[in-house]
Amino acid sequence: MHVSILLLQNGNLFGLETPRQGLMEANEYLRSKKGAPPFQIDLVGAAPQVNFQEGRFVVRSDKLIRQVPHTDLILIPPVAGNLLEAISLNSEFYPWIRSQYSQGAQVVSFCMGAFLLAGTGLLDGKACVTHWRASEAFRKAFPKVRLLSDKLLTDEDGIYTGGGALSSANLVLYLIEKLVDRETAIYCSKIFQIDVGRNSQSPFILFQGQKNHKDQRVLEIQHYIEENYAHKLSVDDLCEYSCLGKRTVERRFKNATGNTILEYIQRVRIEAAKKSLEMGHKQINEVLYEVGYSDPKAFRTLFKKLTGMTPLRYKENFGKTFYKVPGNKRAKKTL
Questions:
Q1: Which of 151, 182, 204 is the C-terminal boundary of a domain?
Q2: Would you list the DSSP string of 141-202?
Q3: What are phi and psi of 127, to 5 degrees?
């Protein structure tokens, strides 16, 4: 199988190496088993070489796109910096990607590489994931794509997309299992020490509120919610605060933020609960009351819905030091 890893302008060097190293390790494992390596891997560029990190690193193309009339798998690494600029700088790849896909090639994007894949038009009407931090910008740039902000990866019609940062490694393992076999994928997961059981970005999402809009009255309501989330809040309270009718408030808020008022209040409260649990000092019942809930069951149900974890599991994962160092008796117990 011929694999083309695109050498992009404004690319992310770590994001380029993650899939390359993963597929190379799969090749080595199959060689050790006296089998043929499944992947022929080339760095394919529109130019002979690309500078990374302001010229600190130079990476050379193995082949140019005009030298690759056919490939089986296209990997689009993440881009960095100004995303719309990156789309423009790499637009030369678009006709080639579309042509290869029409000939049967499968196409994969990692993290912010979804912006380039969406720029080809191949994602229109399909599901997609990218880094959760870029969700709002992605939705505005590509409204025809069904963005799934909380998912780890998608697989639809020969097009794959993966979530942000290190979670790209999970998509690499998924591809190895699907294109080679599960044994090889498990071996690679052990070599790179990757948790193969994770299927969501939800535990890592920081809800910051969608404030990149021009509705000043809605911004005022958002700030009011964020300052008063611990108190009982209703749509009627916010109507009185904003001097607007209920239907008007609900319509304008949804149009501006993408959330209903209730959803926004819930997300603000759960984000506050997450931060409190991360400190590790308080019991879960203390936290839920502090953020405005009185029903423990309802709080736990909503917390798991929005984070993919129970409050207890979240506290265990994020509410202590990440590493227990043998013999380090002076290590702090909480972050």
A1: 204
A2: H-TTSEE-TTBSEEEETTEEEE-SGGGHHHHHHHHHHHHT-HHHHHHHHHHHT--TT--BSG
A3: -80, 155
Distance CA 282, CA 272 (A): 13
The reply to whether the predicted model has a pTM over 0.70 is no
- Which residues partner with 201 through β-bridges? none
Last residue of a domain, one of 141, 176, 204: 204
Instruction: Tokens for 254, please give them.
Output: 């949804």
Q: Is 48 helix (H, G, I), strand (E, B) or coil?
A: coil
Cβ distance 128 to 118 under 8 Å?
yes
Residue 328 lies in a domain: no
Range of the domain at 243: 216-318
Structure tokens at 95: 């006709």
What tokens does 227 get?
């300052």
In this structure, the answer to whether residues 185 and 89 fall within a common structural domain is yes
72 with 220, same domain? no
Amino acid of residue 22: G
Pairing between strand 57-60 and 49-52? antiparallel
Shared domain for 19 and 148, answered yes or no, is yes
Cα 112 to Cα 78: distance, rounded to the nearest angstrom: 4
Residue type (1 letter), 146:
R
Per the domain annotation, does 264 fall within a domain? yes
pLDDT digits (tens, 9 = 90+) for 211-255: 878 889 999 999 899 889 899 888 999 999 989 899 999 999 998
The values of phi and psi at residue 258, to 5°, are 85, -5
What rounded mean pLDDT belongs to the chain? 86
Q: What is the DSSP letter of 320?
A: S
